[in-house]
Amino acid sequence: MIKKLERGTQNEYFRPGVLVFAMICIAMILEGQAKAEPVNPGVFIEKVANDTFAAIRQLRKENNADPKAFEEIIQQTLLPHVDHVYSGLLILGSSANSSAKQDIQAYLDVFKGYIKITYASSLNYYQDQTVVFEPVKHEKDKDKVAVNAIVKDKGKPDIQMQFKLRLDKSGDWKAYDLIVEGVSLVQSKRAEFAPIIRQQGLPGLTALLAKKLQ
């Protein structure tokens, strides 16, 4: 059902399997950070990523294909570290300025669920790929940072990725965009949603996303 919404606008690098793999990596970057002071976003990447993917491999070893188990991984490790509000507003772009506050809030509520269900349903694509992160030099006065990575899949070309993170008001790093081979997820979704908003308004887009979640 989700594919129907994305038809004709989806970049091949944003297919569900690559997206969920990449976005879980974002969660790995952020997991385990100290609350008192934000740390270098790249410090915890390798350890946390290995721990999380080990949990996924354990599900496979147990032949656990229950979608709820995958959704639980998303709920616990991904969603708390994704700024769906900031990302959702970036995707709306100027449409947010001409939309009623209640319509924007309704859209953001559904948008969060849209992300969760999409990524959870795509976890089955994970097949023990390797991700290599570049060292991150973070300046303390910066509230945004980019983390570069290379996804290596045996027998397939490497995939270049960049994760966009920002500090929220509580001082935690959260992901708001993903760039794969030069293509931004935010910009891709903006191009996909824009014609729907023009034709049906923001409530129309929200209703369509909500229908996909059913």
UniProtKB/TrEMBL annotation:
Listed Gene3D superfamilies: Tgt2/MlaC
Residues passing through the membrane, by range: 12-30
InterPro entries: MlaC/ttg2D (IPR008869), Tgt2/MlaC_sf (IPR042245)
Coiled-coil annotated residue ranges, if any: none
Keyword list, A-Z: Membrane, Transmembrane, Transmembrane helix
Domain of life from the UniProt record: Bacteria
Lineage, uppermost ranks: Bacteria, Pseudomonadati, Pseudomonadota, Gammaproteobacteria, Alteromonadales
UniProt-recorded name of the protein: Signal peptidase
Transferase among keywords: no
Matches recorded under Pfam families: MlaC (PF05494)
